[in-house]
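Reopening: KIB1-4 beta-propeller domain-containing protein still failing for me.
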Amino acid sequence: MTAAVYRDWSCLPGDLILIMMRALAIPDMLRAGAICVSWRAACIGVRRVRFPITDSSPCLLFSCAADDADTATVYSVSTGAAWTSRLPPCSLQERLPHGPLALRISTYLAYLSCNPAAGSACAVLLVHQCSGLLYFAHVGDDQWTDITRSASLPVDNFFHGAVYNKNDGLFYVLHESGCVYALDLNGPSPPVVRAILSGRGVATRLLPEFSWGDIILAPWGDILHVWRSKRRRPGACDPLDDPEAYTDSILLFKVDVDDQKLVNMNDGDLRDHALFLGFNASMCLPTKDFPGLKPNCAYVTNESWRQDFLTKFGFQDVGIWNFETKILEGLGNVQSDHPWLNWPSPIWITPSLSR
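Support: Ran it again with your exact input. Result attached.
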């Protein structure tokens, strides 16, 4: 039999291209799709199988009991589809004395003001939850600036998270005490820091001693203050020490920047949006753009880094909080069909194959 002769790689039969595409790593597969029209079509076909994403809604990323050490399972709450994805190698792992665990503990949460392609106009805020310190830099800077010490911010507790408001050009950070600070990182160092909320206010009277806070910028411009508490078993001294503690209450407030107070919100005030709360940055998304999501609910995972490590191998607090019934509902059949490990905790990600 005479071997077929092809002018170049672009003329290979479609079935051979598909076989090759399925064997490629994700970055290589996406690059291959840009070679020519036929390879682009093959790449789209393989993507539909390997990554059944129909929209840009958040997905749950977790370690499944059946996964290899270098793979993770991704679950789309919008479509109910699940698939595995190979994780990129960690270049820092070999330089850390305790391997990947030390890397996870040392992780900072990074918040950007805009696309890094904007150059020095892009500011990056780092929140180190373990030490309670804040740092910032602009693209092109030689070093990070310590905001916490230079601006005399409290260092006895922790910062839970931050958001950037492009409408006024300010970062807003939430302290464990309930204080909210506005940071202007556009000018010279040290940055301008202003306290716009002195504490939890009405939330202090409604929540138990332990709760975890989130700060979220709603699409309509309001800054949301979300406080989440957990129920502990009888006899457990602290939910942080209880591996079976689960979400018992979520309270929702709006930050009134002008009057510097919290305003209580009802479930209808979410305007048919859904909240995503977890270990990484939280989000507020319109459900009209994602028909598979429930409106006026909060999709939750474990979000306290302290509980994640103090109750390692404990209960994974994952579900959908119904603000109307005040009940934590299950997240479909994902846990039974793809049982996750007890550690590390599942997190929300927003996968994108466009870049």
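Residues 92-106, 236-243 have pLDDT under 50 and may be disordered. If you still see a failure, please send the error message rather than a screenshot.
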